[in-house]
Design goal:
By secondary structure, the chain is an alpha/beta fold. Helix content is about 20%, strand content about 20%. The protein has one domain: Spore Coat Polysaccharide Biosynthesis Protein SpsA, Chain A (Alpha-Beta Complex), CATH 3.90.550.10. The chain is built from 7 helices and 14 strands. A 6-stranded mixed β-sheet has the order 2-1-6-11-8-12. The longest helix is centred in the first third of the chain and has 12 residues.
Length: about 240
């Protein structure tokens, strides 16, 4: 079975990407290719054409403001907010492909997640009921609320599933992001469930869960205000291993 792993890349979160990739690769027991989903590359290849702009707000702590998705009429917290849905196309609609956000720490062998997939489903996700109450997250980025929030932060695509043929560059570049994140191209029964351990939301998930993937969804430990969050010490240790 063909397998691949794609990590969202954002230039503002290089340390997060380094931790995610390092923590994956040092725990894999079988060869599975791991790559970054880089917006500049997708644009250069003509695969990502969504019109975006940059806006500014007194709530944003960074001087370069925030990305605005003109189609959605909404902010984009990361460069890979919508490009993640190109993964089945990038894999030529073949095999299984895991997409994950970069603000994550992997604590187990990701080969296991593929073994837990229901091959009758188009995609497998952790079905969170996540309703954030704050207005901002990370480095002051605007917090957005939408149906099925954080389901798309860890997705195992069954790229060969007929329903995923609808995920063309034309669709990904033309519909509102909130529709993509709500899995608009799928029927409810085509979305399978992963165990909660595969997308543990720091500060939100039950502490009784032993995480396989820790998701620093509000902010990574190198950001002000999140230095002492759950699993911060493990995250910093992984960053130091990568640097060494």
């Amino acid at each position: 079975m063909k397998r691949s792993i794609h990590i969202g890349f954002d230039p503002r979160e290089v340390d997060a990407f380094a931790v995610a990739r390092r923590s994956i690769e040092r725990r894999l027991t079988v060869p599975i290719p791991v790559s970054g989903l880089v917006l500049a590359d997708l644009k250069a290849r003509g695969l990502y054409t969504r019109p975006t702009s940059r806006r500014y707000s007194s709530a944003i702590s960074t001087g370069d403001g925030y990305l605005w998705d003109d189609i959605s009429g909404a902010p984009m917290a990361t460069e890979f907010a919508c490009s993640r849905f190109l993964v089945p196309f990038l894999e030529n609609y073949d095999g299984f492909a895991l997409f994950m956000d970069c603000d994550m720490l992997v604590r187990s062998n990701l080969a296991r997640i593929f073994g837990q997939c229901d091959k009758s489903k188009a995609v497998m996700v952790v079905k969170h009921d996540h309703k954030p109450t704050t207005e901002t997250k990370m480095d002051g980025q605007l917090q957005t609320r939408y149906a099925r929030k954080n389901w798309s932060s860890v997705m195992v695509f069954n790229c060969g599933h007929p329903a995923n043929r609808a995920l063309t560059p034309e669709l990904v570049n033309s519909v509102p992001g909130r529709d993509l994140h709500a899995f608009c191209w799928l029927k409810d029964e085509e979305i399978g469930s992963l165990d909660q351990s595969w997308n543990y939301l720091v500060g939100h998930s039950s502490p009784e869960i032993t995480p396989d993937i820790v998701h620093f969804t509000d902010g990574i430990p190198s950001m002000a205000g999140y230095e002492a969050c759950e699993y911060a010490d493990e995250w910093r240790a992984e960053l130091q291993r990568w640097a060494a």
